[in-house]
């Protein structure tokens, strides 16, 4: 049985696409990520404590995993065998920059511990795992740009070694209000359509 890309989500330039279809988001007076949060009708108070990177990863995963195709696939799987393998480039630089700004001026020296609540990339993995009850292997890797070949190889290796049966994979990055994400959910499938191949990953990440 081959691995199949069940669903995928893209976020960039203040827009979001689910399986290639643009989402109609009413931004109103909200920031982009808060607008999506409200669009989804989420009730998850910890969202407001997260830094922008964590918010982006969480929101992208919600858009991806709460659609019908993903939910149907997840319902048929053992949650202890669902993994997460993600990548980004800037890690916590956005929060680090804010912290630096808070201490550089001796006249306004006021470092705030609040800047480091829900900031590390592993917080994103943890929140997604808890939210969806995923208990499989998870990892986050830092690359200058999305390394689709590495992600494909790493996920397939985990599947071949029976560490996981399905996986949330892809890329997300946030820095200075610039959001970019491409996440996909891969699970066993009987058809050759949307196979977990480098060609299909790159075709969907346009």
Question: What is the structure about, briefly put?
Answer:
The protein is an alpha/beta fold.
Number of helices in the DSSP assignment: 7
CATH superfamily: Thiolase/Chalcone synthase
Structural class: alpha/beta
Query: What's the alpha carbon Rg, rounded to whole Å?
Result: 17 Å
Q: What is the string of SSEs from the N terminus onward?
A: EEEHHHEHHEHEEH
User: How far is the N terminus from the C terminus?
Assistant: 27 Å
Shape verdict: globular
Number of domains: 1
CATH T-level fold name: Peroxisomal Thiolase, Chain A, domain 1
* Residues in helices, as a percent range: 25-40%
Question: What is the mean predicted local confidence, pLDDT?
Answer: 85
User: Strand count, sense and closure of the main sheet?
Assistant: 7 strands, mixed
Sheet-strand content, in percent, reads 15-25%
The CATH class label is: Alpha Beta
């Amino acid at each position: 049985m081959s691995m199949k890309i069940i669903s995928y989500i893209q976020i960039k330039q203040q827009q979001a696409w689910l399986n290639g279809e643009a989402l109609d988001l009413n931004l109103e007076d909200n920031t982009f990520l808060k607008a999506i949060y409200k669009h989804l009708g989420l009730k998850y108070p910890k969202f407001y404590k997260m830094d922008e990177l964590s918010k982006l990863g969480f929101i992208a995963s919600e858009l991806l995993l709460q659609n019908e195709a993903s939910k149907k696939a997840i319902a048929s799987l053992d949650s202890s065998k669902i993994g997460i393998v993600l990548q980004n480039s800037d890690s916590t630089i956005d929060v680090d920059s804010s912290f630096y700004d808070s201490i550089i001026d001796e006249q306004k020296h006021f470092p705030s511990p609040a800047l480091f609540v829900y900031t590390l990339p592993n917080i994103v993995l943890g929140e997604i795992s808890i939210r969806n009850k995923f208990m499989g292997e998870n990892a986050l890797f830092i690359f200058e740009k999305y390394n689709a070949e590495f992600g494909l190889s790493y996920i397939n290796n985990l599947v071949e070694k029976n560490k996981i049966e399905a996986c949330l994979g892809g890329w997300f990055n946030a820095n200075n209000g610039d959001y970019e994400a491409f996440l996909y959910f891969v699970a066993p499938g009987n058809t050759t359509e949307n196979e977990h191949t480098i060609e299909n990953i790159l075709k969907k990440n346009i």
